[in-house]
Amino acid sequence: MNPTTGTAVSALGLRKAYGPGGEKVVLDGVDLTIPEGTVFALLGPNGAGKTTTVQILSTLIEADGGEAQVAGHDLATDADGIRAAIGVTGQFAAVDNLLTAEENLMLMADLQHLDRTEGRRRGARLLERFDLAEAARKPVSTFSGGMRRKLDLAMTLVGDPRVIFLDEPTTGLDPRSRRTMWEIIRGLVADQGVTIFLTTQYLEEADQLADRIAVLDHGTIVAEGTAEELKRRMPGGHIRLRFADAAQLEAAAGLFASVGRDDEELTLHIPSDGGIPTLRAVLDILDDSGISAESLTVHTPDLDDVFLALTGNRENPENPDSRKVNAR
Ligand SMILES: Nc1ncnc2c1ncn2[C@@H]1O[C@H](COP(=O)(O)OP(=O)(O)OP(=O)(O)O)[C@@H](O)[C@H]1O
Ligand SMILES: [Mg+2]
Which residues belong to any copy of the ABC transporter domain (predicted)? Predict the structure, then answer.
């Protein structure tokens, strides 16, 4: 892998708004820095502005404000340079259903101005690599969603891009296909040292793949860091103990310093990082006091917690009074 010397993507104050007066603010000053040869995940719920960010950085749409450099080229002055250096796999597959997998790849090779032999060679190699060789001559209309996604990514790779944008690469895939896609993405970074910018709604996906994660909400980055750093910031991880009766609950509640308690459910919620040492400590404390819980569940922070924690105090975006005017 290349040493991560340079910066693959940087953005400062990206803004985008829609509507006649620009009153629907979609990106409200987004800053990003992504080192070369790393995986960056932009995590956010529906409508957060993920696709808009990808579209701006990949030159598909123009920002209203801010600046960005991608693969060493300036967005404002050298969009062509960016286009030549990147690959984009959109949220919705760009494959042509009427063509075969092979023909789709050849089409991409033509668009990249590769000569026929080189195009054919790259296409065959990609089909092999993505386990699509057997299906190479079948029309894409007969492909499953997972195959389509793989072909879509293969098409992105025909041009040998240095920076690859993947907009929700695994949404709608089953767990096995998702894992295959993760392996492919990891391989791209490990073998070719490319930089990956991906968007996702799944914390687990960001956790699995990304060196750094930024959480986007209502067009603003509300948190940024490694998966570990973000998870540490997420409240919501807890051990949930259920007891047989109120007396046991009462006795157990006295044993732990900070607990949440639900008397009707006969449960205690003990804050926890989800780690085994904490779990063991809780069980030991109960054991030592001769109290047994009826059931125990470990709740680790998930995307719901992330968004509840990070966006709980925000104004309602649907409330017109809270809409910000685009500062252009
Ligand atoms: N051409 C457009 N005109 C008006 N509004 C738009 C346009 N494109 C996007 N938007 C709005 O911008 C907001 C952000 O959209 P975007 O597609 O970037 O979100 P996203 O984070 O990719 O969401 P998803 O997870 O659903 O793909 C949404 O409220 C969307 O309705
Ligand atoms: Mg999107």
Answer: 9-243
Instruction: Give the ligand with the smallest distance to the CA of 166.
Output: 2
Structural domain boundaries in the chain: 7-95+143-232, 237-300
Predicted confidence (pLDDT) per residue in 72-119, tens digit: 999 999 999 999 999 999 877 778 888 999 998 998 888 888 899 999
Residue 44 to residue 21: CA distance in whole angstroms? 26
Q: What is the CATH number of domain 7-95+143-232?
A: 3.40.50.300
Residue from 50, 62, 326 whose mutation best tests the ligand 1 pocket (most atoms within 8 A of CB):
50
92 lines ligand 1 (CB under 6 A): no
Q: Alpha carbon 40 to chain centroid distance?
A: 8
- 156-169: per-residue pLDDT in tens? 999 899 999 999 99
Distance CA 293, CA 143 (A): 50
Fold adopted by 237-300: Alpha-Beta Plaits (3.30.70)
Ligand 2 centroid to 290 CA: how many Å? 52
Cβ-based burial of 134 (10 A; exposed 0-12, middle 13-18, buried ≥19): exposed
Q: Is 201 left (phi over 0), alpha (psi -120 to 50) or beta?
A: alpha
Q: Which residues lie across from 42 on neighbouring strands?
A: 199, 214
Residue 50 three-state SS:
helix
Under 8 Å between Cβ of 145 and 170: no
| Ligand 1, atom 31, residue with closest C-alpha | 47
Contact 7, 34 (CB under 8 A): yes
Instruction: Count other Cβ atoms within 10 Å, centred on residue 60.
Output: 15
